[in-house]
Amino acid sequence: MSKKKVVFANLIMIMLLTGVKTKAQTPVVVSDLNFKLKGSNPEEFYYTFAENDTIVIDFAVVGNSAIKSFEVIELPSNTKWSAFKQNAINQKKIHVSQKAVYLFRVDGGAFGKVCNLKISRIPINASTEKFNTAWTWKTLYDTTYVLYNEDSLVRYDSLWYKETVKEEISSRLQEEDLLPGGKPVTIKSEGIIEKDNPRHSVRIVLPSNEESAIRSKKVIAWAYWIGVGSSAESFFSKNRDAVANTAIKVAGITNPIAGLAVGAVTNLIIPSGEGIDPVRYAITDSKNKDYFMSGYSYSCFDSGFGKGGVGRFTRPEMCQGIYYVCMKNENIHDRIDVVVKAVAVIEIKEYQDVEYDRLKVTPRYVTLHKKKMVVNTSKIRVPME
To answer: What Cα–Cα distance (Å) separates residue 243 from each residue in 247, 264, 266?
Structure first.
């Protein structure tokens, strides 16, 4: 081959090689974005790059104010480049050592900023010019095995045994006259010249509750009746007649006051008519009885004013202890006669021990050591192709 031909062939080869190299180094625009940063919330952009690509970054902030930071991260966590307090980045080039998804994070800091970001790639050769820079989600599955214990039923054990149970065999109500036959009292008048105490009290003691293995005795209610005047007893006898005519249908109850205590009688007759002076009364405890008798302010459980009065108590806390019927004569000239009656109703129950055959069934378990599979999922960004 002549010398001219050799020179010409070499020139053609150099031109071809130069053309290939120039073509391979032509930048391909991946994205050209204008966006506004919102305070402290960074903007993030994700793109895939081919092996041996060269990433080219151009960035500018409108108004020349500086951003807080700019980061380029090869996922999952390999920081390839970062810059701080920048208002512009010109032709920053980053080599891609392997095919991967890259994160471009722009943090504007405290204030919003308008930015322009251009990302280009320079392929290594023509084969990757049309490389797909998109990405997709890939689900990862992480399987672990967890040990645990579980009780497993294997059988039931049966056992017969004797059980003694206290059972009620009878129940009845019993009246108890707390002031047998009634308590007549005379209450002096206060007087105009010679002063007397126009007050009087009557003590009422309730029976104590009792409890044993075979018998119980419990006060379930009590009631009182107050009548003023010498004819008070005759008025009370009308209650007996009324009870006899209406027939209290509660076993063991014959006294009208007991009938009122258990609710079988709704009301009782008290003295009425002309010539009967009223009395002021109150049902109190020991301390308030002393206040009443001394003319001081007092508290009471029940009270009234008139020619008589009735009342009943059924709350358990009111069915034990000592109470006082305190009375005051409001007539400053004449004394008055008063009759106070009170009856308690007692519930009496009797028991006996009854023996039963019982079956006790006990489950029996064994502990099994088991293993279960736990699958945790997570997502990562991967190249689309």
So the answer is: 6, 10, 11
User: Residue 142: inside a domain, yes or no?
Assistant: no
Query: Structure pTM?
Result: 0.56
Beta strands 100-107 and 43-49 are: antiparallel
**Shared domain check, 338 and 197:** yes
Q: What backbone phi and psi angles, to 5 degrees, belong to 250?
A: -130, 120
102 and 176 share one domain: no
Q: How far is it, in rounded angstroms, from Cα 101 to Cα 48? A: 4
The string of pLDDT tens digits covering residues 202-247 is 999 999 999 998 999 999 999 999 999 988 999 998 888 766 655 5
Q: Which amino acid is at 182?
A: G
Residue-wise pLDDT for 333-362, tens only, equals 899 999 999 999 999 999 999 999 999 999
CB 368 within 8 A of CB 235: no
Residue 177 in domain: yes
Query: Could you give the C-alpha distances from 379 to 76, 142, 230, 308, 320, in angstroms and in order?
Result: 11, 11, 102, 91, 76
Answer for the pair 101, 46: CB distance below 8 angstroms, yes or no. Answer: yes
Domain that holds residue 294: 163-352
